[in-house]
């Protein structure tokens, strides 16, 4: 923590020097993102084209926010949290700065997605985020051994006892709520109603606990569990299922009956970002269809880039179509922004589930 | 006649099958209530004997008997033998009373009985008030006495002492010699004492065994060892001696004549040892057996008479000596002579001409083959 | 003159350590303590109170996790001592020369790889399709695959393994300083092996035992990876609560309060242990 301001000052000094020497402004873009979202090849192309350099830091939603909170929004020039994690933290901690939409080439985005993300990330009339990569979470199944699992609640069935794994995080709570016939997103605005839904989910998860082999923590851990055959049904991301499918054709991603949970990772500008020019340049660069397709190939997920599908690998498209029928696609439940404070209720539930015997 | 407190029979210890034995067929017996010392240079095997008696080492051969009973199959914590270690090995985590009471506690003696016995033994070693003191608060001499008390309170048949005075300074060591002897007399326990310091052994012991290279050279009283050494090693190791090597030219009854390698002709006694003319032999003469004189007439009756020059004066009060270089001998031949305590030769100076002489009975000859 | 320059030298020598302590230990702790006293009363609004500490005391789960962590750490410490003592005794008193260095090195080797890799190693061994399970089946001792991972025993194994060196080293140091003659004297005066262990060896090794126990206890209490990775769905560890408050819940205030509670607990337990065993911190650390 103590090194961050120093690092910042150095960067400021370096940037100032560079700015003096080169009016064309070649910056260092400090990018806080997910694994796979900034492949080497893309960075090289970007650096060659713009003269900016890119420093990548890999992270996840919670850590991105924690890092930015620790420095009050400093240390990075561009971050990529999910769209539901922008409005709440912005209200609470003020770690982002508004997007200048005039500097973004809106024509490169799938219009419906851009609009939805803009709506979800608006705080006080200002837009804070634009969409980048999207995907879903649902069920990863060994269809030969756990073909009967059609929804999250089926993970508690005796047929798969001891061979089930899911994360003890908020997507599990939301997924189980939907599978139990409730609509947690509708209750986001009403803390009492939300707490009531979670109470039911809590008892279900506690009841289900003996069925669970372990709560997985990292993607690698889950991959190992499924690959070794120790786990035959899990709640996980779509890309995980597709990757496992390459090793074992029986394993794949299945959209649950109650609907897969859809997430969108965005671009946001940290409040104390130093290289906005480079940040906007990066956004416009990676949203080009060809570049977006390169990212899809590495990350395994599709992007909000219009026309990128054409360039995406066929194998991935085939898996995607196998997992998502048109109805399943319509049924995707997109995460709305999480109001500040809900995490505390969810945290209590998760703690109690973990502690239950 | 009761069995001796400690008896060793043909005791042998080899640490490796092909190495020379550290202890080689040693046999001795220690009568009840006596003070027995084993004296020898470091590495001679005396500590090995001690550790075998205490039970920390198993003999390769021979037997150890305590009061007539073999203890070879008895583990160290069951042997009626206790040991005072070289560095005393008091238990630093216990106070003095706990140290002394340790063995009694292990025997299951009742608490009041332990307190009484510990009090008694502290009284006997003259330190009645130190029971609650910590070990590191004691002086060197006090530690010594506590270490002995810790063993004596168990009333052992034999007390082994492994150079316990080695760590003390000279003055305290002199004092403790006397004190140890007195303690032994007071307790009446059999002491077996190991040392490389001849003065410790000679002062305290009823009998001393001189040990060299795993064997006993001679067992006897201090006087025996000093005045009647039976081997050249004992003659050389116990007390100071002038020593010559040479060839025997004539044997005449108990007396013989020897031509030294340095060119002197000496007369010596063979004390019943088999030495013939033509043999190589060694002769030992104590400095105090040599009489200095201003002229030859004063040395009447001495079989050996030499004239020489004082080369060095070694003044040490009553134990003052001079070194004399005899005429007709090589420059490296010097004879050490004790000055009589009468002070008759107090005026002797370096370079003075003196006569020295000694009787042939005072010069013990040993066959040289045995000396090697 | 010399006094002044000596004092100056002393100050200069001490400066890096003092600076390090102040910048990296004292200031962050004060800052964290202030954070722990903040109570969130609305979006972006805070007031000063002990509410976070109140939350800790009110919620049975937190107290339970706290107690569980403490008890498991004490147990892990005791187990480490039980396993480490004979090892240390063997290395310090019985092994000689080469064997001794080799054995000591063997204790050290696990620390050449990161804790993460070590923990993964245990996962590979203990998992259902892992080595131990396969061996048991091969030997006919188990009918089907055995899951040895994801339970408290696995946590214990991991903690003991991770802490072993920190117990063995201080033990070897203190046992080394025990004169062999003192042990022999114990035998000579009629002591049996258990009584010598109890009355001579253990009292002598007490400073090493206590300092080893303190280090192992602190390491176990503050361990994060091992309980999370080996413990599976029932692993409740207090550090995990702190992590989740800071990172997952964005609740730095409660996380900081938890941190201070943990600091307090470890200090109290260490202090209590020292009092109970009659050791002082100076003896133990000196």
UniProtKB/TrEMBL annotation, chain A:
<dbReference type="Pfam" id="PF13416">
    <property type="entry name" value="SBP_bac_8"/>
</dbReference>
<keyword id="KW-0732">Signal</keyword>
<dbReference type="InterPro" id="IPR006059">
    <property type="entry name" value="SBP"/>
</dbReference>
<protein>
    <submittedName>
        <fullName>Spermidine/putrescine ABC transporter substrate-binding protein</fullName>
    </submittedName>
</protein>
<feature type="signal peptide">
    <location>
        <begin position="1"/>
        <end position="26"/>
    </location>
</feature>
TrEMBL record, chain B:
<keyword id="KW-0813">Transport</keyword>
<dbReference type="InterPro" id="IPR003593">
    <property type="entry name" value="AAA+_ATPase"/>
</dbReference>
<dbReference type="Pfam" id="PF00005">
    <property type="entry name" value="ABC_tran"/>
</dbReference>
<dbReference type="InterPro" id="IPR008995">
    <property type="entry name" value="Mo/tungstate-bd_C_term_dom"/>
</dbReference>
<dbReference type="InterPro" id="IPR003439">
    <property type="entry name" value="ABC_transporter-like_ATP-bd"/>
</dbReference>
<keyword id="KW-0547">Nucleotide-binding</keyword>
<dbReference type="InterPro" id="IPR017871">
    <property type="entry name" value="ABC_transporter-like_CS"/>
</dbReference>
<dbReference type="GO" id="GO:0016887">
    <property type="term" value="F:ATP hydrolysis activity"/>
</dbReference>
<feature type="domain" description="ABC transporter">
    <location>
        <begin position="6"/>
        <end position="238"/>
    </location>
</feature>
<keyword id="KW-0067">ATP-binding</keyword>
<protein>
    <submittedName>
        <fullName>ABC transporter ATP-binding protein</fullName>
    </submittedName>
</protein>
<dbReference type="InterPro" id="IPR050093">
    <property type="entry name" value="ABC_SmlMolc_Importer"/>
</dbReference>
<dbReference type="GO" id="GO:0015697">
    <property type="term" value="P:quaternary ammonium group transport"/>
</dbReference>
<dbReference type="GO" id="GO:0022857">
    <property type="term" value="F:transmembrane transporter activity"/>
</dbReference>
<dbReference type="GO" id="GO:0005524">
    <property type="term" value="F:ATP binding"/>
</dbReference>
UniProtKB/TrEMBL annotation, chain C:
<feature type="transmembrane region" description="Helical">
    <location>
        <begin position="103"/>
        <end position="125"/>
    </location>
</feature>
<dbReference type="InterPro" id="IPR035906">
    <property type="entry name" value="MetI-like_sf"/>
</dbReference>
<dbReference type="InterPro" id="IPR000515">
    <property type="entry name" value="MetI-like"/>
</dbReference>
<dbReference type="Pfam" id="PF00528">
    <property type="entry name" value="BPD_transp_1"/>
</dbReference>
<keyword id="KW-0472">Membrane</keyword>
<keyword id="KW-0812">Transmembrane</keyword>
<protein>
    <submittedName>
        <fullName>ABC transporter permease</fullName>
    </submittedName>
</protein>
<keyword id="KW-0813">Transport</keyword>
<keyword id="KW-1003">Cell membrane</keyword>
<feature type="transmembrane region" description="Helical">
    <location>
        <begin position="70"/>
        <end position="91"/>
    </location>
</feature>
<keyword id="KW-1133">Transmembrane helix</keyword>
<feature type="domain" description="ABC transmembrane type-1">
    <location>
        <begin position="66"/>
        <end position="273"/>
    </location>
</feature>
<feature type="transmembrane region" description="Helical">
    <location>
        <begin position="153"/>
        <end position="172"/>
    </location>
</feature>
<dbReference type="GO" id="GO:0055085">
    <property type="term" value="P:transmembrane transport"/>
</dbReference>
<feature type="transmembrane region" description="Helical">
    <location>
        <begin position="250"/>
        <end position="274"/>
    </location>
</feature>
